[in-house]
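Bug: token stream looks shifted between consecutive jobs. Job 1:
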Amino acid sequence: MNASQAKTILLSEILTRLGYEPQKQTPRDAWYYSPLRDEKTPSFHVDILKNVWYDFGHINGQGAGGNTVDFSCAYLEARGLPCSVSEALKWLDGLNFSLPIHSLIFDEPRGQKKQEPKIALEYVCELKSAHLISYLKSRAIPYLLAKKVVKEAHVKNLDTGRIYPMIALRNEEGGYELRNEFFKGSIAPKEITFIRNPKGVATELHIFEGMMDYLSACYYQEQHEFHADVVILNSITNTAKALAYIKGYHYQKIYTWLDNDAAGISTTKTIREAVTRERGLSLIPMNKSYAPSKDVNAWHINNCKNG
């Protein structure tokens, strides 16, 4: 592991691994009891968006802070251990975090574009990785809900030979959407995911952009599942493929759960135009139910924190 790779590891994940949980948290900031010293009032601050830390009471009341590597050095020093950068990188590597695949690609010569990550699917199994379950928890998705829908894929970086566990959602052509806390990508082919109504023929279709939004919405349904058909686009570029499920079918209502941004609004408009061409079919956009949040999962996370 090099310093650039180490800096991609979330400080919140390191602290959780060390047994520290936030005492106060907002979408941007988290406050912890300092892992560098004993204290009764949490004064260890993590900027979640920038992934940097600052300990306001470190070293005789003088503050200290920095990035992931700086924290690792300080943590080792506080325990009387060798605390050079190289020792900190060895310590982090020993914690076995799943690094983002793109961070493990060999650097190209200066001025040349980095090559795209080359990945291959090794195998798919039931969701069981504690690391992935922890990631789902950070997105407010219960394990028992998620395991009904997603699998665990083990994916190899072909440049390094290292294998990483990923949350995997299978699509209609046998490809997979892949997620963990560092990586968002897919195993080709790119296609929609269609989930059929477990109760039989459906008269309603719900359309989501991604798996996290769908899982978030399931949380509020009876038995944590929709009694309707569901399409997960996996990318708004797949909208036209979803429309093929509307034309000439038996649906009476189409519900859209797309993002509250320009792309989501435009995609909803495209779906509305297709719906108006079908007799007896109506469109119900759900955007207002999770506004002003950008998407369903962001609203769900906030709702769970405040609930």
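Job 2, same session, no restart:
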Amino acid sequence: MKLETFELVKGPIFTNILLADEINRAPPKTQAALLEAMEERQVTIEGITYKLEEPFFVLATQNPIEYEGTYPLPEAQLDRFLLRLSTGYPTPENLVKILKSRLKWGKDDPTSDIRPIISKSNFLELQRTVEHDIYIDDAVLEYITKIVETVRTDPRVIAGPSPRGALALMKLSKALALIRGRDFVIPDDIKTFAISALAHRIILKTEYILEGLMPEDIVREAVNKVPVPKEVRKR
């Protein structure tokens, strides 16, 4: 007996860690669909909503050189990314380490040798610890606000970080505090991630772009300008 029915075959979005390689090569329709997954932690197919399993987060790379055949991410979508990093070229010392690692692997693709270093349950527990057990003082929250406001009101900026940018900086600083063995946030945690959390959320005026000004310069100036809190309570 033949049944003419559809069967859902779940694609790569149904995972815990999604790597979107060269995301600016994906068409706008695909980029827009990814927004729902990133923001709502769900996927809608033929009107039916499927919740994504926790933890879920997206890592994406972007080709910064070739623009032919690419679709630059709109500002609203860039705003969904917690932070943006630019690795640049490795130092000579790190390049030597890369070459030695390749010799040790004995092959180009070492993925088959990768072993887990943390379980899913432990990862979720770390997320809960960051959320509930890492303290951030009001003075540090005001420090974040002043940095964001300084960036937003800069006369060279058309549009600055939304509240999502301030939230990203707060969450990153709490995670960094845990990594550094503290249960409280200090101003240096904010400084560490200010550029990575805010620069990709800034739109500069055209004349300043032509002069070579970068969003990172705006954030760097703001961090140097805003006074660091004199007293920060640990709990």
